[in-house]
Each structure stands twice: as structure tokens, then as C-alpha cells.
Design brief:
The chain is largely without helices or strands. The chain is built from one helix and no strands. The protein is globular. The chain starts with about 55 loop residues before the first helix and ends with a helix.
Length: about 70
């Protein structure tokens, strides 16, 4: 389970593609070639998204791209 103790007040983590909140980190197969990872930061035109901790990654992505 994700540790929310270091997040700003009112912030929470939603479910990831792993099925639980929190960062799962990269995990390429052993012996695989080097992988490249991209991190994206979104600036929104509103104070927050209408999501809960149980919202799917797809819903969060939809709202991020809409705003």
C-alpha cells in the first residue's frame, strides 16, 4: 500500500496499472537491453481533478488530457 504521509494536505494517490496506489518503479526483465523511461508533469487549468483514490488510471489520464 502507498504511504501518503509525505503528500501535501488533501493530496492522495490513485490506483496504478499495478492495481494499487503508489509508484511501482521500472522493472525490465533481467538481461534485457537498457530501457528509457519518460516522466510527464501536467500543469492543469483547475485546482484538482474529479477523481478518488479508487479511480482508474485511464480516467485520470482522460481528465489530465482534457485539462
Amino acid at each position: 500500500m502507498a504511504d501518503n504521509s509525505k503528500l501535501p494536505g488533501g493530496a492522495f494517490q490513485v490506483r496504478t496499472d499495478f492495481g494499487a496506489p503508489g509508484y511501482g518503479g521500472p522493472c525490465p526483465p533481467q538481461g534485457s537491453h537498457p530501457h528509457r523511461y519518460l516522466f510527464t508533469i501536467h500543469a492543469l487549468d483547475l485546482d484538482g481533478l474529479d477523481v478518488t483514490a479508487e479511480s482508474s488510471p485511464a480516467l485520470v489520464g482522460f481528465y489530465l488530457n482534457y485539462h
